[in-house]
Amino acid sequence: MSVATVSSGGSGLKPGWGVSPERQQAVMDTMRRLAPHSGRLSPAQLRAITVTLAGHRELWADLVVHDPDVRWYLPLHRSNSCDVWLLAWERGQDTDWHDHGGSSGSFAVADGSLIEQYRVPSGRRLARRRLALGEAVAFGPGHVHDVAHGGESSATSIHAYSPPLSAMTYYSATDYGLIARETVAIDGPEGARGRGGADTALARATASAARLTSDALPDGAPVIDELLAEARSGLTRLRPEAAFAAMTDGAVLVDIRPLEQRIVEGEVPGAIIIGRNVLEWRLDPSSEARIPALARPDVRVIVMCSQGYASSLAATSLRRIGLTEVTDLDGGFQAWQAAGLPTRPAQALG
Ligand SMILES: [Fe+2]
Questions:
Q1: Cα 116 to ligand 1 centroid, rounded to whole Å
Q2: Residue 294 CB neighbours (<10 A)
Q3: Distance (Å, whole) CA 306 – CA 265
Q4: Nearest of 165, 167, 168 to residue 146 by alpha carbon
Q5: What's the CA gap between 137 and 163, in Å, rounded?
Q6: What are phi and psi of 299, to 5 degrees?
Q7: Is 50 exceeded by the pLDDT of residue 350?
Q8: Rounded Cα–Cα distance for residues 146 and 129 (Å)
Q9: I need a surface site. Which of 29, 192, 327, 350 has the fewest CB within 10 A?
Q10: Measured in angstroms, how far is the CA atom of residue 192 from the centroid of ligand 1?
Q11: What is the whole-number distance in angstroms between the Cα of residue 92 and the centre of ligand 1?
């Protein structure tokens, strides 16, 4: 299955995802009257597209599938200029906080109602609005929002993005505001899991990766699982209770998680925070950037990350530069917290 690709001449449609070529052509004909065929579209142009298509029920109503288990979508159109998607929403379904990479966008409610929480432009304040049938939102690349099903009945919406969506960053809502958590190559709009294969950057990268064979890799290069197993073979890892006991006996817990992860997850009282990117320079006894009290071969360091994977590689790196008493926390902060050991919210300055 492939997405419809539209050449600059307007031909070259391929059937895909259960949307007939005639239907794709009808969508294109409707859009042609609303916005230029190429180039980057403005939020106002995208709004015209989503509102108009939402009003043309004959273009999409028979295609909608409402699934209570997973948010459903269908690509309706894609060109180099923009992509258009049909989404269905059931009670309890929402997107989580996200942006749209560098794309502008718009969505219009075609059935039911939706609730949008969004970050007010040029501020940290969050706001909320309910969107009824026929209403639409349009936004530029900086827009961050969380869209949810609203009301009692099923909802349907039409979404358009320009340039076509290729990546989205997800955010966590914290006491410090929205904190970027992860950027993902998207395989559908609004983080939805849909039917059929969309011709996205992720789909192309996945197809390309599937063609990679071990012949394409350098001779003898370990895969990450092998690298991790090799690292752990040289460590006597500590479960949280054992690490806690070691700390009361003078061992130092070193937290290498990034700030945004500490804000979201919390911290361990008494842990020393050293970013992973400077870890070796802070603990190498011969480094000018060392922390003198810690950069000693005899210091007992327990490296902690979120789940206990990156910490094994970090601890092994420290052992290689002569800190032979270094190990890591098996299961990371999450296991520590699950064991009921002391934690606290991330500490703010001032
Ligand atoms: Fe969105």
A1: 9
A2: 16
A3: 8
A4: 168
A5: 17
A6: -75, 140
A7: no
A8: 11
A9: 350
A10: 10
A11: 17
Q: Which of 56, 47, 63, 3 is nearest to 29 (CA)?
A: 56
- Ligand 1 centre to CA of 145 (Å) is 6
Cα 99 to averaged position of ligand 1 atoms, centre (Å): 6
> Residue 117 is encoded by which pair of tokens?
């929480």
Tokens of 97: 């906080």
Which of 329, 296, 299 shows the shortest CA–CA distance to 312?
329
* Whether 82 contacts 203, CB under 8 Å: no
Give residue 100 CA to ligand 1 midpoint distance, Å: 6
Which residues have C-beta within 8 Å of that of residue 151, sequence separation ≥ 6?
112, 113
- Residue 280 near residue 321 (C-beta atoms within 8 A): yes
Tokens representing residue 350 in the block: 């001032």
Q: Which amino acid is at 145?
A: H
Provide the token pair at 246. 């070691």
Tokens standing for 206? 């996945």
Name 261's bridge partners: none
Contact present, 315 and 253 (Cβ < 8 Å): no
Q: Label residue 250 by pLDDT band (50, 70, 90).
A: very high
pLDDT digits (tens, 9 = 90+) for 326-345: 999 999 999 999 999 999 98
39 CA to middle of ligand 1, Å? 21
Q: Is the peptide bond before 297 cis (omega within 30 degrees of 0)?
A: no
